[in-house]
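Problem: given the chain below (435 residues), write out its structure.
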Amino acid sequence: MADFLKNMLGGSKSADTPVPAKADSDFADFAGAPEPTPLPFQVTAGSLGAGATAGGPVPTAVPYTKWYNVHERHSLSEFRTEGVILVVIALICTAHFVGARLNRAKAKAWAKAHASLLNTEFAQVGTGAPRISDDESDKVLREKSLFEFASYATGRQNVAFMDVKLSLMKRFNPLMLLPDFIIGFLVDSYPTPEDALGATIYPFDGREAQIVPSAPGAAEVRSKDAKSTYDAFVWAVVNKSQMKQLRDERYDVSITFTKDHPKLPIWTTVMSESAEITSALLTDELVDAINKAGDLFDYLIITDQPIEKPATLDEAVPRKRIFIRYHLPSSNDYESLLPLFSYFVRLPDQLASVAHFRTEVLRKVKSVREENIKQIQKLAEVEKAEERALDRDKVRKAKRDAELNALDAKAQKRYLEKEKEKEMRKAAKKQTMRG
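Solution.
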């Protein structure tokens, strides 16, 4: 206490002189401990290399740890699932790009083989420029998808326009292609994947003035040209492997009669409404073209009827069209198919010149269409009668409800009892008449 007062009041000692601190009795055991120093790194004999000698210098080694040695902490077996996923992705991507490239190459091969023919027959080919050269075959087709390619042609006498569609196999997706092959092999009604061409020609049929825009002097030129009209009928040459499917899927072909022809190969047949029509249309040029095409040929159809069975009078209106379908060769060699496609393009000219038949033939052809129209009209009358009956029932029910609502409870009860008695008398009368 005395020292504290001296310090506060300023004793005889100078303030600059430091006062030595007294040792704390609680830490007396540690007061004389020396400062800690790091120990040198000791290397054991097992860590020495094979070339080290006992009397030589001891090498300095890095402390052993697994943190830097990834190959000791992990192994490739831990990434087996990821590896399988990467391999599957690589295979799918490879199949996709290779399949898409094969489909595009097949479409280009068809366009290159037919570009010259299309440019010769039509004023405009494709959906781009009005006129393309034979070297611009890549502009003939337009890619709608990886397995569908389409083209368009117009500007020809007797032809309003032509649509072309290439349907190819889905080579870019083996996961879909393989099941389609398996199901098509096991189920007859399921189509097997294939490369095929389908084309449709829409003839003018005397409607040039309605379809083509008029130009100065065009009326005089058209009056001098031959008429593009021809009689309405259904006629087809079909591969027998497609005959049953066509009859099931197409209404227009189902109204024809099937008969083999001695000019045609044994694997084809004629579907016609009259023998006179067959004799006029089955030319030697067509027979030679079918023989050259071989099994690749599917069908050639001339029709004026809809594909689906008409349900209304508007759907039964005749629309003349020409269809062709054939398989694409795996070798991309179209030399055997060019005569068939060339005949198909020029077929409207032949129809305009020779497809005019006797009145007896046309009467037989029209009788089938008139019978179908009568059935449509009969069904329409039945539907109208049912609608009128429903309307009468609605009016009668509304009148009954109004009468019931205007009565009190007792009168409603008597009304319902009388109604029930009437129904019972009607039921008994029906039973009596049946007996």
